[in-house]
Design a protein that fits this description.
The chain is mostly helical. The chain is about 85% helix and about 0% strand.
Length: about 240
């Protein structure tokens, strides 16, 4: 027979799954938006993204309340607290990814159609796809209790960072051979904002992967670098 405590934990995980689906939808819509030229279709996608962002914010509040209520009402044991805390921490990272999507869109609106954006579009799309893959794998790790996905995500964070640096280097090289007009400088500022936010998506995916490791192994690897050994698992 399922206890109220187990139901509360299941409800928190269900809320997280729904929130995660929304965030992944946002990232998919962002990919589509960045490749479109049809203004009507772009406006439809932007409207959907704004609606989803409001729902994501609501889910963060719901999960926070579920976390607090579960602790107060059902006196969960250590392993249950670890699971609930993990759900809460992941929800915070998902909400921030949602904010990042909105930040990217803000700059995208300013830079769409410029020569600078067209020159860098393929690289930007590659960065975005890489970040989305990291988010997907980190979430799969937690939902499926599979630490291999988490390990993959953490190890690949440096690859995304390196891609970011190379992209900036290419942008600077292009600027040197172009006329430095005010419009170009503004465009590059928006490009930098998009690039930085895309890197932050990968960072939050790494955070989620670290929470997944914590949930499964009881090992908090934040700020320690990657060095997970199954023999080091703590039985909590």
């Amino acid at each position: 027979m399922t206890t109220k405590k187990e139901e509360a934990i299941a409800d928190s995980i269900k809320s997280l799954e729904e929130m995660a689906d929304l965030v992944l939808t946002q990232l998919t819509l962002l990919e589509k938006l960045m490749s479109l030229n049809d203004k009507i279709e772009m406006d439809k996608i932007l409207s959907t993204i704004e609606e989803n962002e409001n729902k994501i914010d609501q889910f963060e509040v719901i999960i926070s309340d579920q976390f607090v209520n579960s602790i107060i009402l059902y006196q969960p044991v250590a392993s249950d607290i670890r699971k609930l805390n993990s759900v809460y921490r992941i929800s915070i990272n998902l909400e921030r990814i949602g904010d990042i999507v909105m930040n990217i869109i803000s700059s995208f609106k300013s830079i769409k159609g410029t020569a600078e954006f067209e020159a860098m579009q393929d690289v930007l799309m590659n960065m975005l796809v890489s970040g989305v893959t990291m988010v997907e794998k980190s979430l799969l790790s937690f939902m499926n209790n599979d630490d291999s996905y988490a390990e993959w995500t953490i190890k690949n964070d440096e690859i995304i960072d390196d891609m970011n640096r190379k992209l900036l280097k290419n942008s600077v090289a292009r600027a040197k051979v172009s006329e430095k007009t005010r419009e170009m400088l503004l465009s590059y500022m928006d490009l930098k904002n998009i690039i930085t936010n895309m890197e932050r998506i990968a960072d939050h995916a790494t955070n989620i992967a670290e929470v997944s490791i914590y949930s499964m192994q009881g090992t908090d690897i934040r700020h320690q670098g990657y060095g997970i050994h199954h023999s080091d698992k703590e039985n909590i």
